[in-house]
Amino acid sequence: MKKIVTFGEIMLRLSKPGLQRLVQGDRFQGFFGGSESNAAISLSVLGDDVEFVTRVPANDIGRAALMHLMQYGVSIRHVIKGGDRLGSYYFEAAAAMRNSRVVYDRKDSAFQTLKPEMIDWPRILSDAWLFHCSGITSAISEDAMHTTFAGLRTAREMGKQVFCDINYRKNLWKYGRAAQDVLPEMVRTADYVFGDQGEWEVVTGMKAIPYEPKDEHFVIDREAYLAYFRKAAAMYPNVKRMILAVRYQLTSSHHILSGLLYDTQADMLYTTRLYDYDPVVDPMGCGDAFCAALIHAFTRWDDNLQYCLDFSLSAGALKNTIPGDQNLATEDEIISNMKGKGGRIER
């Protein structure tokens, strides 16, 4: 089995029950989450050998976060313990015309104060097939950014595959570096790159192609996307596959999701169906589910990129039906949904 190493911050997500605003009520619901840990858990649920590398405080909250990872079979063999606190974020769900909101509380977290010398990348990556990281880690602090790039350089030097999720979060870039300067450097190191319309715009400077479907019968402009990806491939000649997730929100609870995959070496563009779903139960982690499923698919059906894309989109769509940050759908469930067999009672 091919080992996958993913690196990032696991956090505590706090939300009010139902659709209450953050200023309402007197109770919070807690979930552990964070993009890279979400991907790690999804990969483990899919049956992959996955290790998550992070830093958590040596207290009960840090221990609870690690127990959450272990509950789903994620290896934490090289997790570092130290620092004062676990990062957290507050999430207010969208409702009708009200947008969702995220308030970060990551300052001085164990991960934000991580130092590059704390992680022995050659040892961690020695038996890995693929290294997965995202742009979030480079946004948290300069030291976290240097640690991420140390992992990327090591992976490249050791001949490992690299999967980068662009994951642009404008509210996190506060330490003096601009995302437009750092994220393109991350993309240049990668074999596989994933992002949504806005994130690809950050690393290419090219405006997103309009995607405004009213239902699942919308036809994607293949020629426009093919031209787009050809230009992106010229900017990043080392990237083998470029993946784009497209989502349109008709309302806060009614979304239409699809995806595209461009094989730069074969100059082939793959598109897939649209998922029209209403209501959205919880949209957090949809992209992470897509990424995890794509990595899993590459280990299983790498000779059939159309199937890989179909499988990954199905996983991303299913995540929207699951409360919390992680996609807990199995491979069989994702395939069943992909074949249009979802929504039935399993007896």
Query: What is the assembly state of the chains in this entry?
Result: single chain
Total beta strand runs: 15
Uncertain residue ranges: 343-347
Global morphology: globular
Percent in helix = 25-40%
Listing every helix as H and every strand as E from the N terminus to the C terminus, the arrangement reads EEEHEEHEEEHEHHEHEHHEEEEHHH
Descriptive report:
The chain has 347 residues and is an alpha/beta fold. The protein is globular. Strands 1, 4, 9, 10, 11, 12, 13, 14 and 15 form a nine-stranded mixed β-sheet that branches. Strands 3-2-7-8 form a four-stranded mixed β-sheet. Helix content is 35%, strand content 22%. The model is unreliable at 343-347 (pLDDT under 50). It has eleven helices and 15 strands. The chain has helices at residues 35-45, 60-71, 121-125, 135-140, 142-157, 179-188, 197-204, 222-235, 286-300, 305-319, 331-338, and strands spanning 3-7, 11-15, 29-33, 49-53, 55-56, 80-81, 88-92, 101-105, 130-134, 161-165, 192-196, 241-251, 254-263, 268-271, 275-277.
Throw out a few tags for this protein.
alpha/beta, globular, 15 strands, nine-stranded mixed β-sheet, 347 residues
What is this structure, in a nutshell?
With 347 residues, the protein is an alpha/beta fold. The chain contains eleven helices and 15 strands.
List the helices and strands and how they pair.
Blueprint: E1 3-7, E2 11-15, E3 29-33, H1 35-45, E4 49-53, E5 55-56, H2 60-71, E6 80-81, E7 88-92, E8 101-105, H3 121-125, E9 130-134, H4 135-140, H5 142-157, E10 161-165, H6 179-188, E11 192-196, H7 197-204, H8 222-235, E12 241-251, E13 254-263, E14 268-271, E15 275-277, H9 286-300, H10 305-319, H11 331-338
Parallel strand pairs: 1-4, 1-9, 2-7, 5-6, 9-10, 10-11, 11-12
Antiparallel strand pairs: 2-3, 7-8, 12-13, 13-14, 13-15
Helix pairs in contact: 1-9, 9-10, 10-11
